[in-house]
Design brief:
The structure holds two protein chains of two kinds. By secondary structure, chain A is mainly alpha-helical. Helices cover about 70% and strands about 0% of the residues of chain A. Chain A contains six helices and no strands. Chain A starts with 10 loop residues before the first helix and ends with a helix. By secondary structure, chain B is mainly alpha-helical. The chains are: A mainly alpha, B mainly alpha.
Chain lengths: ~130, ~220
């Protein structure tokens, strides 16, 4: 049928996407390396992530050249996951607030870093390391 | 649907109904099956990642600082997240060599296809090796366990071992699968059958890379 002889495309497009994926990964890593925090960090990381995922599925996995029936089979069912993510985010937020408000959990607790741990033994860290 | 085409009853009828002359996907059946498997695998990884989202939101203990925990020092100051960045680049490189292997496969260039698949498998194996190193460092040096760790929320360890472990298992299975396909290509097994199998194996491999894109963003960066 339309794709009887398989997916054949010029090599150039693979090289271009390959380089693009490297650049996008470098950008993602730069976000962490330069310690970008807050809303900007989330925005950048998620944009780079979706661009990378999109190019892998579209070009490397040849999805753009497939027929609509197959594309919808691939993208349709997983799109329902957005609903699950939304539900679990609302639920998770609610649970966390309950724990802060009614169970006396500390809202301002700060995690320990490896540097702090290896600097001073014992303390909070010692009790859980088996 | 009231056409009088249903002739048999029972099991024979069931088989008739499902094997009627209908085709939804105009691709080789192996490729359609691989896509359906990958969609189901998407749900497995989504369960892990959505579970991680919920656990990360509900835990009131502070989340351990991934950037510093996964830092690595090459003599000087620790470079944040460097090992994970290298692993990411290795996986992307392997995706590129796999895409080229698929292309050369359809050109029936068996030598190039064989070596490109072998290169892909080698990158995959080195990825698993680095993951083993990372796990060892976290378990032995940092005392991270699935039930607790010295930094903060104990769920960090559960999510880490579950998600990266399951992904590493996929990479390991992929390496074996790729080598199997590579040697069959070399021996001329697909000369008459066609080289769709390289594309099908490639789909699996790109999917493994795709999952890593999400793990890298959600677990390591955010």
């Amino acid at each position: 049928m339309a794709e009887a002889e398989g997916q054949q495309h010029p090599l150039g497009i693979y090289y271009k996407i390959w380089i693009l994926l490297f650049v996008l990964s470098a950008f993602s890593y730069a976000v962490d390396y330069f310690d970008v925090q807050g809303a900007l960090r989330w925005t950048l990381v998620i944009i780079f992530m979706f661009l990378k995922a999109g190019f892998i599925v579209a070009i490397f996995m040849h999805a753009v050249w497939e027929r609509l029936a197959l594309i919808l089979t691939i993208l349709g069912p997983p799109s329902v996951l957005l609903l699950l993510i939304a539900f679990m985010a609302v639920e998770g937020n609610y649970t966390e607030e309950l724990r802060f408000d009614y169970m006396g959990h500390d809202r301002d607790a700060v995690a320990l870093t490896p540097a702090e741990l290896h600097g001073e033994e014992g303390g909070h860290g010692g009790e859980e390391a088996h | 649907m009231s056409e009088a085409t249903a002739s048999h009853e029972g099991i024979t009828g069931l088989v008739d109904d499902w094997s009627a002359d209908k085709q939804a996907y105009h691709v080789p059946w192996g490729k359609a099956m691989m896509w359906i498997f990958l969609v189901s695998d998407t749900f497995i990884f989504s369960c892990f990642l959505v579970g991680y989202l919920n656990v990360r939101m509900t835990t009131t203990e502070p989340w351990p600082p991934q950037s510093e925990i996964f830092a690595l020092s090459f003599g000087g100051d620790p470079i944040p997240l460097i090992l994970i960045a290298i692993m990411t680049f290795i996986l992307i490189t392997s995706s590129g060599t796999m895409a080229l292997a698929v292309n050369y496969g359809y050109r029936k260039d068996k030598v190039r296809t064989f070596w490109l698949i072998c290169a892909t498998a080698a990158f995959g194996a080195s990825f698993v090796g680095m993951q083993a190193f990372e796990w060892t460092k976290l378990i032995v040096d940092e005392g991270v366990r699935p039930w607790g760790n010295p930094f903060g929320a104990p769920q960090f360890g559960s999510v880490f071992f579950m998600v990266t472990g399951f992904h590493g298992l996929h990479v390991s299975a992929g390496v074996i699968y790729l080598l199997w396909v590579a040697f069959r290509v070399k021996r001329g097994y697909y000369d008459n059958k066609g080289f769709e199998i390289v594309e099908i194996a490639g789909l699996y491999w790109h999917f493994v890379d795709l999952v890593w894109v999400f793990i890298f963003a959600f677990f390591y960066l955010l």
